[in-house]
Amino acid sequence: MKAFYAAEQKRHNPKAFLSSGAPQPNPEQPERVERLFAGARAAGCEILRPRDHGLGPIAAVHTPEYLDFLEHIHARWQRIAEASEEVIPNIHPLARGGRYPASAVGQAGYHMADTACPISGETWESVRWSACSAVDAVDAVRAGDRAAYALCRPPGHHAFADVAGGFCFVNNSAVAAQRFLCDAARVVILDIDLHHGNGTQGIFYQRADVLTISIHADPVRFYPFFWGHADERGEGAGLGYNLNLPLERKSGDAEFLAALDAAFRRIRAYAPDALVVALGLDAFEGDPFGGLSVSTPGFSRIGEAIAGLGLPTAIVQEGGYLCDALSDNLTAFLSGFAVAA
Ligand SMILES: [Zn+2]
Of these residues, 62, 111, 157, 158, which one is catalytic? Predict the structure, then answer.
């Protein structure tokens, strides 16, 4: 299987992070790349540098003012006297849709959902190339490959059309789905990250051409809290095209595979032309977030089951944090997928 990754993706090195109000090291570390790289290699992937696709595929799912913000906010922030090194918001609009602020501080609050996605001088290049990796994985599949893997880092599924959040800036899975629509009529995004894919849901909530499905730890007491509940089904033309399958905390392989079966019934009824797997590995029992209890062999079975759908598939990396088994979990998923593909 081809895998896509550009060295620029490692430059983003976030420092700030608040957990329950306490400053902690940011878990979305560049070292994740080494582990994921090793995992992809061990699964037999051929790792290729993506082409530079410019802004087009990203602008297809994000607003122009947001992309302008991501590209330029760090330089503007540095002109504020005594500002922090990283861009971190300290005020948010209660409701969106009001006046768009002119100030850098106002725009940071407008475009950033939380303190988990600080922006440094390196962030934009990493984010842009992460999206290019997703685009090239899709293009490999459009050109005839059965599946391809995008080593996307920074991840993307918490990013809305104009809001960053939860380590995410550009929604790589959404970029991938939109790219498939160049020559597909219906695409499904199956998000198996520990956390609900709230940004992905938000981007496609009123659309029927992309079915969004997310299996995740129940957000009633877990990030992202405000989204990911089972009664969120889409709106307008998108009503019925969003499916959330929250799991009780610490659910293991059996519960995860049962949720996957429910997802597959919905996918088969939708009869999509292509599939994007938003592959988080943080549902692992040893992940620092500790929300679910999927095992390493469990990831292999999940990969095998998803391959059984028989769809052209782009696998887009989302979460999965530093722990001893991070490489092995990626290898398990990709190898399991390859067995059944
Ligand atoms: Zn996650």
Answer: 158
